[in-house]
Amino acid sequence: MVQTANRNKAESALGELLSGNKRYQQGALQKCVFNQQAFISGKSGQAPPAIVLSCSDSRVPPEMVLDQGLGDIFVIRVAGNVLDNNVLASMLYALTHLGSRLVIVMGHSKCGACNAAQGAYIQSQSGGGQSKGVDPVSQLLAPIIDTCGHLARNAGNTGGDLKNSIPVEAIVEQNSIATATSVFQALQQNLSGNEILGEIVVAAGKYDLDDGTVKVLKRWPAKAPRSALQKNLPKLVLLGVGAIVIGVKAFKSIR
Ligand SMILES: [Zn+2]
């Protein structure tokens, strides 16, 4: 991605989602309510700045936990928030036709899909047969089971007490990051040469069922670009301090 591109829309969308999550934590939803104006403007089209890929878990509705209303977010939900061609095609549609610029993958604590993947991986490692079958559930879990394997190898554990070395919460976080990494790579391939590629921010996040917080685990590009004011703030402060020192000295010299 081009680092100098304008990602203001994506950055402000991310800020808005995190602000919405703060309102949710405080029990002060503002946007996740029926809004007549949004309903009427929705008749003539949509322009959601953000795409949210989340798990289908009934406890994690993105519109509610991020306090967003009609037309605000383009939501794709699938158990385990994994990426496949249908999910990618939906993202590409929103990016190229609706003007979305932020893609956030939102995993969540205590995820049943991650729990099932952990079980399937442990079973495969304990001689219980293959971890990946051809049935629909196994196919859905396959990328999460791969993540379990990476985590187990990183923990230096290919046997023993796997349940402790790859806890579900670690799988949840790594799965969100792995999915977002795949999204980032797929967008680079599919939008190669398209100028909007430089305007997109991809983020991996996690919703915590215990306290209702959404935190960003990783993002591409890594950090929001600093504004000209932020960049020059240290110089301006130094100049200001210098001016005060000179002023005080001049004041003392004329006394
Ligand atoms: Zn889940």
TrEMBL record:
Annotated GO MF terms: carbonate dehydratase activity; zinc ion binding
Classification via InterPro entries: Carbonic_anhydrase, Carbonic_anhydrase_CS, Carbonic_anhydrase_sf
Manner of cofactor binding, per the entry note: Binds 1 zinc ion per subunit.
Major enzyme class: lyase
E.C. designation(s): 4.2.1.1
Cofactor: Zn(2+)
Keywords recorded for this protein, A-Z: Lyase, Metal-binding, Zinc
Residues binding Zn(2+): 55, 57, 108, 111
Gene3D superfamilies xref list: Carbonic anhydrase
Presence of the UniProt keyword Transmembrane in the record: no
A single BP term in Gene Ontology: carbon utilization
Coiled coil: none
Residues of the signal peptide: none
Family to which this protein belongs: Belongs to the beta-class carbonic anhydrase family.
Protein's name in the database: Carbonic anhydrase
Species per Swiss-Prot/TrEMBL record: Apatococcus lobatus
